[in-house]
Design brief:
The complex is a heterodimer of chains A (460) and B (453). Chain A is α/β, with parallel strands linked by helices and 460 residues long. Chain A contains 18 helices and 14 strands. Chain A has three domains: 138 residues, Rossmann fold, CATH 3.40.50; 117 residues, Rossmann fold (3-Layer(aba) Sandwich); 163 residues, Nitrogenase molybdenum iron protein domain (Rossmann fold), CATH 3.40.50.1980. In chain A, the strands form three sheets. Chain A has a five-stranded parallel β-sheet with strand order 12-11-10-13-14, sandwiched between helices. A four-stranded parallel β-sheet of chain A has the order 3-2-4-5, with helices on both faces. In chain A, strand 10, helix 14 and strand 11 form a beta-alpha-beta unit. In chain A, helix 7 packs parallel to helix 10. The longest helix of chain A has 23 residues. Chain A is globular, with a radius of gyration of 23 Å. The mean pLDDT of chain B is 90. Chain B is an alpha/beta fold. Chain B is globular and about 65 Å long. Chain B has a six-stranded mixed β-sheet with strand order 1-12-11-10-13-14, sandwiched between helices. Chain B has three domains: 150 residues, Rossmann fold (3-Layer(aba) Sandwich), CATH 3.40.50; 135 residues, 3-Layer(aba) Sandwich (Rossmann fold), CATH 3.40.50; 110 residues, Rossmann fold, CATH 3.40.50.1980. Classes of the chains: A alpha/beta (460), B alpha/beta (453). Chains A and B meet through strand 1, helix 1, helix 2, strand 3 and helix 3 of A and helix 1, helix 2, strand 3, helix 3 and helix 4 of B. Strand 1 of chain A pairs antiparallel with strand 3 of chain B, so a sheet runs across the interface.
């Protein structure tokens, strides 16, 4: 029992976090920046931050992850990090030659009071930014929010700092990807193409963090949203933000700067959320839903119907990030399953409000909590008090799954011990099929394992 | 081939061994250049990896959540009992704490945790921000130690206050506070501490068994499968045997000064170094020739079994070339020898934390044409792997996918090793892992070293 120390009794803790269901802002900013073509993320802080983020992303994607660091020293912490960042910008352009440097701050540089806007402007004024190259930034203090907040802040920085309004509208729709995998971004693009809607998706980590083996180490892989695409988002007709926490802030910023109207949807995970996404895109794009997409939906509904008896009433605990948990909870309810415990380390009242709306009529007794104190220790305690049939969450859930002997599906960030998440989407109807297959396999494997000989069934 | 340039300002940290060539002294022990894609980590990381394997201690990270999240059970340092070290505890500092200070939160967290988990001691890691907001961690630790009766040790590991090596030192400093506080009763005169062995994949157990077979008592392992009570009586040993010199030499020196315990540097990788590490300990007890006899016995038994089993690998691997980029330089020496024993040569050798002496020795050991690097980056590594036509990269988590993208084999000689690479059995495992990866059929399907198939 790895977590033998987890007590059943839930006590109020004074700010202590045990086994976090979140991590800090900068890694989210780094991930978002990797979704711009030719961009080198830059961590303005100690060397360790950058190293940890790269290692974690590498463990999650099994891909090289490139990012630079300001390499703070004691001097920088006393005199400020401006000199480090200016040197860094010069070094990066002369040696690594990216099109864009995306700087994010850390707890250290934020506490010192470094002003990224001022420093990056100075770099430009001092001629350290070559013609045609860009330096963008986002403030991502680690002591506020979570990795999701950091992602949102960098995406907002991208929208604000690239978008140009030429006054001439383009016949295109912006889709702002909330935190999702490269596979999900690829699927969003496929669905839009299938619908015949012209979109700009950003950020876009497909073909960056799922790059093929080529015999070369591509410092800047072929994927990512390009500078011209990002500049054009100010002229788009409309924006769809997928995710109220991780994508909406960028949509608001873009509306403010370039008057592009927006609509916020959940990340299209599961049947209903995908329906809403497809409907919204077809309405905004002025197109009808093609038969092929209707058929995809039909196949998902067909499988759910075929197997409905195995879903009914199954109790699920889930943890992870708000923009994924909300549609996943809805999907579980659509499958006639029972979300029992839900935990997210990411703070914010929006999550609570949305969850309340979803759960109030369909499962008012569900335990859910986010923000301070919402960690895996709490989730584990809840599971001890009210056991579940299935656990869904990132790799760190494996301790609880093992100790409580509960089937476990890896979902979310980070996944350090399995592959698949970068290649097979969770979004869209095909993503729904993947989730349904995973859920059924986990539940039925368990049923087979535990079945008495006489009840061991061939046909299920 | 495309030319890839070396980062300007890094020329002093890259060296190619050539007769008659310019003999620059390699520059090391410096922070990375701002703007480099360094593979290095920070002070906190150094402290965390050294202390992490102490399994019955509480490890509380005082700072925002990231530092605790990224170091949550990432090191396969195996424990034979308590698993407390595998949980992640953080004060999860918020904006208000940054403004008003985090001492209160730290105090309450400690009291709650100690009450619940009853650890033998507690290590409190300072992170960058704690160094800035000025929390008096020493005072909080003292107070909690007094109230709870267990040692509560501050680890001054603010990320920006130096390099990973400074983190090792901060960790050793915390250990030094414990050493000397336990009873040394009944400790044999023929006893050692194993320093700098972290029990990755159970390696410390293998090493310990060899020494025990020689009739040597192992008082404590610092810190693999570590226990506070064992650390407290470490001063009762007659000799300190230091592996992973980067992390623990400081502690050995301190113990020598304070308790008069001499130390030797060893390595458990490869047949040659592994054998030497047993003989060197035996040599320390000349009045007991039976210990040396026993050491010879252990080596001969192990080698008799190991040597024939390596031949298959040697046959397949002879003539293949390796690139090494690991944390400590001492490990590089052993790896060069181990690779030679399976027929492989080394074309690139580097470390994140080597010092001047290390690099001087490395130059001596390496073949003509070998490139030596300090604190390298992915561009450089890729460049030299392609230019020198390496077939294998030995490194850590960030290097693995680079090797695979280039179409060459990889061996993790860092935290993520899954099988023991130390000891005689470790040499077999190492050869097997290298063989598996270098000779994998996947390379038949993959463009290799930038060349299309």
């Amino acid at each position: 029992m790895l977590l033998r120390h987890t007590s059943k009794e839930v006590k109020v803790r004074e700010g202590l976090t045990i086994n976090p269901a979140k991590t800090c802002q900068p890694i989210g900013a780094m991930y978002a920046a990797l979704g711009i073509h030719g961009c080198l993320p830059h961590s303005h802080g100690s060397q360790g931050c950058c190293s940890y983020h790269r290692s974690t992303l590498t463990r999650h994607y099994k891909e090289p992850v490139m990012a630079a660091t300001s390499s703070f020293t004691e001097g920088a912490s006393v005199f400020g990090g401006q000199a480090n960042l200016l040197t860094a910008i010069e070094t990066i352009f002369s040696v690594y030659d990216p099109d864009i440097i995306a700087v994010h701050s850390t707890c250290l540089s934020e506490t010192i009071g470094d002003d990224l806007q001022q420093i990056t402007r100075k770099a430009k004024d001092d001629g350290k930014v070559p013609e045609g190259k860009r330096v963008i930034f986002a403030s991502t203090p680690s002591f506020i929010g979570s990795h999701v907040t950091g992602y949102a802040n960098m995406v907002t920085g991208i929208a604000e700092q690239f978008a140009v309004s030429t006054g001439v509208k383009k016949n295109q729709i912006n889709i702002i990807a909330g935190w999702m995998e490269p596979s999900d971004m690829r699927e969003i693009k496929r669905l839009a193409k299938e619908l015949g809607v012209n979109i700009v998706l950003f950020p876009d980590t497909s073909d960056v963090l799922d790059a093929p083996q080529t015999g070369k180490h591509e410092f800047y892989p072929k994927g990512g949203t390009t500078i011209p695409e990002l500049e054009s988002i100010g002229d788009s007709r409309h924006t769809l933000a997928l995710g109220s926490i991780s994508a909406e802030p960028a949509a608001i910023a873009l509306e403010k700067k370039c008057k592009v109207p927006f609509e916020t949807l959940e990340v299209p995970i599961g049947l209903t959320a995908t329906d809403r996404f497809i409907m919204a895109l077809s309405e905004i794009g002025g197109v009808s839903v093609p038969d092929e997409i209707t058929a995809e939906r039909g196949r998902l509904v067909d499988v759910i119907a075929d197997m409905e008896q195995y879903f009914y009433g199954k109790r699920v605990a889930l943890f992870g990030d708000p923009d994924q948990l909300v549609p996943l909870t809805e999907f579980l309810l659509d499958l006639n399953m029972k979300p029992v415990h839900i935990v997210s380390g990411t703070p914010g009242q929006r999550f609570e409000k949305t969850m309340r709306e979803i759960l109030d009529t369909r499962s008012p007794e569900t335990n859910f909590k986010n923000g301070i104190g919402a960690d895996m220790f709490l989730l584990h305690q809840w599971m001890k008090n009210e056991p579940v049939d299935l656990l869904i969450g990132n790799t760190y859930g494996k301790y609880m799954a093992r100790d409580e002997d509960v089937p476990f599906i890896r979902f979310g960030f980070p996944i350090l011990d399995r592959i698949g998440h970068s290649y097979f989407p969770n979004v869209g109807y095909s993503g729904g099929l993947r989730l349904v297959e995973k859920i059924l396999t986990a539940l039925l494997d368990r049923q087979d394992r535990d079945a008495l000989e006489e009840k061991f069934e061939l046909v299920m | 081939m495309e030319q890839i340039s070396i980062l300007e300002g890094r020329h002093k940290q890259v060296f190619e061994k050539k007769t008659g060539g310019e003999q620059v002294e390699i520059s090391c022990d410096t922070s990375s250049l701002s703007g480099s894609v360094s593979q290095r980590a920070c002070v906190f990381c150094g402290s965390r990896v050294v202390l992490y394997p102490v399994a019955d201690a509480l490890h509380l990270v005082h700072g925002p959540i990231g530092c605790a999240a990224y170091t949550w059970d990432i090191r396969g340092a195996v424990s034979s009992g308590s698993e407390l070290h595998r949980l992640s505890f953080s004060t999860d500092l918020q904006e208000m704490d940054v403004i008003y200070g985090g001492e209160k939160k730290l105090y309450h967290s400690l009291i709650e945790l100690i009450e619940q988990y009853k650890p033998k001691a507690a290590f409190i890691y300072s992170t960058c921000i704690v160094g800035l907001i000025g929390d008096d961690i020493e005072a909080v630790c003292k107070k909690v130690a007094k109230e709870t009766g267990i040692p509560v040790l501050p680890v001054h590991s603010e990320g920006f206050k130096g390099t990973k090596k400074d983190g090792y030192k901060a960790a050793c400093h915390a250990l030094m506070q414990l050493i000397g506080t336990g009873s040394t009763e009944n400790i044999s005169k023929y006893s050692i501490n194993i320093l700098g062995e972290f029990n990755l994949a159970g390696e410390a157990w293998i090493i310990r068994k060899y020494y025990e077979k020689m009739g040597i008592e192992v008082v404590s392992t610092l810190t693999g499968d570590g226990r506070i009570d064992a650390v407290r009586r470490a001063h009762g040993a007659s000799l300190n045997v230091v592996q992973c010199s980067g992390s623990m030499t400081w502690l050995a020196k301190e113990m020598e000064q304070k308790y008069g315990i001499p130390y030797i540097r060893v390595s458990y990788f490869g047949i040659e170094d592994m054998s030497k590490s047993l003989y060197d300990v035996a040599k320390h007890f000349p009045e007991r020739p039976d210990i040396m006899e026993a050491a010879k016995q252990v080596v001969s038994e192990e080698v008799k079994e190991l040597y024939p089993s390596l031949q298959k690998f040697k046959k397949a691997l002879t003539g293949k070339k390796a690139a090494i980029y690991v944390g400590g330089a001492f490990k590089t020496f052993s790896l060069i020898k181990a690779l030679r024993s399976i027929g492989m040569s080394v074309v690139l050798a580097g470390s994140q934390t080597g010092n001047k002496d290390d690099y001087a020795r490395l130059k001596e050991m390496c073949d003509e044409g070998t490139v030596i690097v300090d604190d390298s980056n992915p561009v450089e590594l890729s460049k030299f792997i392609l230019e020198k036509e390496a077939d294998l990269l030995i490194g850590g988590v960030k290097e693995r996918p680079i090797a695979f993208k280039l179409g060459i084999g990889f061996c993790d000689h860092n935290h993520e090793r899954k099988i023991p690479l130390a000891g005689f059995v470790g040499m077999y495992n190492f050869a097997l892992e290298v063989y598996q990866s270098v000779m994998s059929p996947v390379w038949q399907f993959a463009p290799r070293k930038g060349v299309k198939i």
